[in-house]
# Entry
Amino acid sequence: MNQLVEQHRDYRRYSWLAVLLSVVAPGLGHIYCGRLTKGLVIFFVGFAFAPVISAASKYADSTTILVTIFLTIIFIGAVFIYAVVDAFILARRIEVFQPKEYNSWPVYILFILVAVTYPTNVASTFREHVLKAYKIPTTSMAPSVLPGDRIFLNKAVYNLKPPHKGDVVVFTYPDDRRLNYIKRIVAAPGDTIEIRDNLLWINDKPLTIREIDSSLLNFEPKGPTKVMEEINGAAKYAVLMPEGAPINMEKITVPHGYCFVLGDHRGQSVDSRNFGPVPLADVKGRLDYIYWPALSWERFGRYLFNG
# Structure
């Protein structure tokens, strides 16, 4: 009898170890306690966020993606808490345990490696192909986007449709491909564009423009500028026009496969007037959200890219 008791003591399940394994890899605490099926279900459910978010990203709607991420985080958090608590209770209830073939540290280490590396790889893939955060350093896109704004760039949107006039996009700077620039698309492939005394002409037609009250934008422009509203197709947005010497540019035709971009702060922007049209292949995505706004939290939320 004494020998049998000693054998049981050697094989008992430690609740602290079940909790630790569950924290590192949800479901592993159950596998440690001999509940293989339940442990595998919890383990794989805990990593189900990747295909769910990937499916949401196909809609190319940042609101859908962000809501899906939020709900998924809540769900995964609930699974994590359940896995830890249930593994703790299960280990405490086991008095006699006979180890299974999978109750070995090589198996545990394999699960731990998957649990540690999988989220990192998914996060990297998510940033590169779905949503990526940027911080705005300059005033070239004022008053729409201000220095210090932190934004989400939708990197999946152009998988389903081409960029539109009025979209604010991040792209690779042609003269230094290590840098990213943010500007607004004002002309599409095949369009003609010119600037006459600050007024944009697209396909030989002037854009509608009117002066607006800067107080409506939670932004006070500096220097001799006017805040104007510009209408370009379905897009309507505010721009800063310099007073004094007007901006002019000779007519050009945007090549196919390219777009023409301008900063909203027309007098303080390095854009297609300087480096020419931008290849559509270099456009990384569209600004959809300002998640940490500069100056005023009234600017928090979805950026209205069209209309």
Notes: The chain has a mean pLDDT of 86. The longest strand covers residues 283-292.
